[in-house]
Amino acid sequence: MEEVTASQLIRIDEAEAQIAEAAAAARPRCTAVILALADLISLLAAWGISVSLAHLLHTGPTPDFYWALLPAAVIFLAVYAAFGLYPTVGHGPAEELKRTSLATTWAYTISATAAFLTRTEAPCPAGVIIAAWVLSLALVPICRSVARALYARQRWWGHPVVIFGAGRTGALIIRALRDCPDLGLNPIAVVDDDPARWGRLDGTPVVGPLEKAVTLAKAHSIRYAIVAMPGVARERLLSIIEQYGKPFRHVLVVPDLYGIASLWVVGRDLGGMLTLEVRRRRLMPIHKAIKRALDIVLVLLSSVVVLPIFALIALAVRLDSPGPILYGSIRIGRNGRRFTAWKFRSMVTNADEVIQEYLRQNPKEREEYERVHKLRQDPRVTRVGRFLRRTSLDELPQLWNVLLGDMSLVGPRPYAEYDFRDDNLEEFDLYYQVLPGLTGLWQVSGRAETTFAERIAFDNYYVRNWSLWLDLYILARTVWVVLFGRGAY
Hints:
By secondary structure, the protein is of the alpha/beta class. It has four domains: 28-152, no CATH class; 158-256, Rossmann fold; 285-346 and 381-484, no CATH class; 354-380, no CATH class. It is built from 16 helices and twelve strands. The chain has a four-stranded parallel β-sheet, sandwiched between helices. Helix 4 (69-82) crosses helix 5 (93-118), helix 5 (93-118) packs across helix 16 and helix 11 (351-361) crosses helix 12 (363-372). The mean pLDDT is 85.
């Protein structure tokens, strides 16, 4: 090992003081309490709304129902805890939605069964229980999201974590955890055997060799460690985990498997050997059928609300500027099939001439247009068109594409033919395997604020990790993005 300089020792001392402060500020129990309170609030709201509706219909529960709420609340919290929801650490929104939905369903099943077995008369009509269950499925994730929005960036939120490895992977992990504080893992220290790397990694102190992790874990009661050394030899990796991972309750290992599905990888024991099962759900006929059925049902159910809005927008487009109400453009779909994607017209009819003249006069705007294929101040867009684009309402006619089977409600956004170039065709291999979507991971992750390369990366991540839970999360997230117009222009 190289000699450590005096200046490095001074920096390490300062870093250790910072680590001690960050570790002392962490309050994992407070995180669990906040989430439990959010769950109780959402459950009480679901029960209250259901009972109020029942009373309006003169089918309210008996007084015994209210006495049963306390033990029911205990059952719910116990089931949520059993599903690892207090606190949920290291799980993305799709995984948490899955866990909360399953836990809520189990809790209602257990509570209803207990009430049936212990009472001669049902304290509550079945309709109230079913309504409360449906409301809980929606309100529990919403209240948890609100709690995280309010508190996830506080220093006490979640668990402190030590990163093994100050290389590129370690930096990516730190950046990912800071960009997603909802995950509940706060990187407070990095360890690496190379003294040349001691100092700072993306703002996080690198405080010494790997053996330093043992001291940090014991001194500050740190439970989580992430081994971000994917290029290390197998024997060395096993030695690191065995020697330096013992003080940590949870050791997460970043494998040398970049590019495969990450959400639905399952560990398997085959005769004492660790294997990773990569579940390619998008290729299973049953999952394709479920996704298609969900598309049709949701489009038909939403038509009651959508059709009046459709008529109002059509009238506004017609009155705002001359030209057709709808605009159709050729897009590339699954297996390279071309189809016409419909939108409300949001541009002037001579859009091509306008944009070419504008870009000729504004070279800086041309750079933005070539980078993301959009402009913040697009001269082609009409007054009504700006509103439609900001709220994404211009894409409502694509519900017809969903019914026709050209598109799905959720998927990668459909690309135009000019997006496919000789130098990027390999990047679209995954895109060809699925139907393009009305909304998708790219749209709810920044939309126009992201680059074209990031858009492709979001689409590839979605295809690799597809599941019904991820679709439901994206649909719920889309409502939030549309209401507040984030990232659209």
